[in-house]
Design a protein that fits this description.
This protein is an alpha/beta fold. 33% of the residues lie in helices and 25% in strands.
């Protein structure tokens, strides 16, 4: 099938319906009913696609589930979200003064110093994730630990999107237990005022750690040659909303790509569709998958095209993992469908493509709204990440780009 025939095979109605169905399962956080329903749905849909081989891999992992609360003096509790893997607080919580660190940059921590921050609860701001200048919350959390903080609060700076979620480092390697929570922008104002007055606040994190088994799905459409283009998207998310941008859109597009390529009567190379779990838990499933592949098998994967947060803005960027050859491939693929795709060259450890790239496989991530803080991508990890943020045209456009890229190997 020609590129034009493949692109014309995209069914916008089906694509949108798949997307909305996945969103209906909620945030799909690992260990939730939504995660289970999503996997059941994907199996059902993939089994209906002819000529493909469906398989799965299961991985045992330490599942974390908890809740949080915070209050100032005798005021009512402030809405809060426990950050994944947060250490728990003792009974009665921790009652300490709070310090407002601003954005949470290194120099802001240094301006206070360890003598001022030791034993305090620090307040920082969540920032736009899809930017070259982004400082990840885990880095801010690491600095909080380094400067001796007793607690960590990250606030959503955008009033219209509610609480902010996310994860922090697993375990407590240096013996300094620092519980972490997310709050909304209104709560940040209250906490900042408390910081100015040097008031005490109470922070509680309750929860449990238990073992669970996560399932990732793989759907193969073999070709004449034992070589592959590996598409990937992560099916897990966060439980505050629908994880529509991150990453129901990517999963729906992956399903549509599998349907489209199954219609080819003959394929020179094969296509593998990887529906990874545990991406939000440190890219665990894709890491385990790449580790199990032998060197010869890795060489047979010609390209990984990772779809993660690829909707929510009309403009798409390819993060090409420092692979110089991919730059021209992306340009040619975009030109072939008269589309625009921006390019960001450095390797980024922000999605499953990273593990492919680290294994020596050419890998890229397609992402929307890169370096555009006004895009709907600002709602990722918040209560605002819902299907209404995504236009059908964005789903179709990302699908076209993925198809075109796959034909350039």
């Amino acid at each position: 099938m020609s590129l034009r025939t493949l692109v014309d095979s995209i069914d916008p109605v089906n694509l949108l319906n798949q997307f909305e169905t996945i969103c209906s399962f909620g945030g799909r956080v690992c260990g939730s009913d939504g995660e289970v329903k999503t996997i059941e749905f994907l199996k059902k849909e993939l089994n209906q696609i002819s000529k493909g081989l469906l398989s799965s891999r299961k991985l045992d992992y330490r599942c974390w589930n908890g809740d949080a609360s915070v209050k100032i003096g005798n005021e009512p509790y402030i809405p809060a979200q426990a950050l994944l893997f947060s250490p728990l607080t003792p009974e009665g919580g921790i009652v300490r003064e709070v310090r407002d660190i601003g954005q949470g940059a290194r120099n802001e921590f240094e301006s206070f110093g360890s003598s001022e921050l030791k034993g305090k609860i620090v307040l920082v701001r969540h920032s736009y994730m899809f930017s070259p200048s982004h400082v990840h919350r885990m880095q801010k959390y690491a600095w909080a630990r380094e400067f001796g903080a007793a607690g960590f609060i990250i606030a959503n700076p955008w009033p219209e999107s509610g609480l902010v979620a996310g994860g922090i480092m697993q375990g407590d390697p240096d013996g300094r237990s620092v519980p972490g929570i997310g709050v909304d922008s209104a709560s940040a104002i209250l906490l900042s005022n408390a910081a100015q007055k040097k008031e005490h606040i109470r922070l509680d994190v309750n929860g449990k750690i238990f073992w669970r088994r996560a399932e990732s799905l793989f759907f193969d459409l073999p070709g004449v040659e034992n070589k592959w283009v590996a598409f990937s998207a992560h099916l897990d998310g966060h439980d505050l909303a629908e994880s529509a941008i991150d990453n129901a859109g990517g999963v729906a597009i992956l399903l549509e790509l599998a349907r489209i390529f199954s219609q080819q009567s003959k394929r020179q190379i094969g296509y593998r569709f990887c529906f990874f779990n545990l991406e939000e838990w440190g890219l665990l499933a894709s890491e385990e998958y790449l580790k199990t592949l032998g060197e010869e098998e890795k060489k047979r994967i010609l390209l990984n095209i990772n779809l993660d947060a690829v909707v929510g803005d009309p403009e798409i960027t390819a993060l090409i993992s420092d692979h110089k050859g991919l730059k021209e491939q992306v340009k040619q693929a975009a030109a072939a469908i008269q589309s625009k795709v921006n390019i960001h060259e450095p390797l980024t450890k922000n999605s499953d493509h990273y593990n492919f790239a680290e294994s020596g496989i050419p890998a890229l991530r397609l992402v929307a709204g890169f370096d555009n803080p006004e895009s709907n991508l600002r709602f990722v990890l918040t209560e605002g990440d819902k299907r209404q943020l995504v236009a059908k045209e964005e789903l179709v456009s990302a699908c076209k780009i993925a198809v075109s890229l796959s034909q350039r190997v």
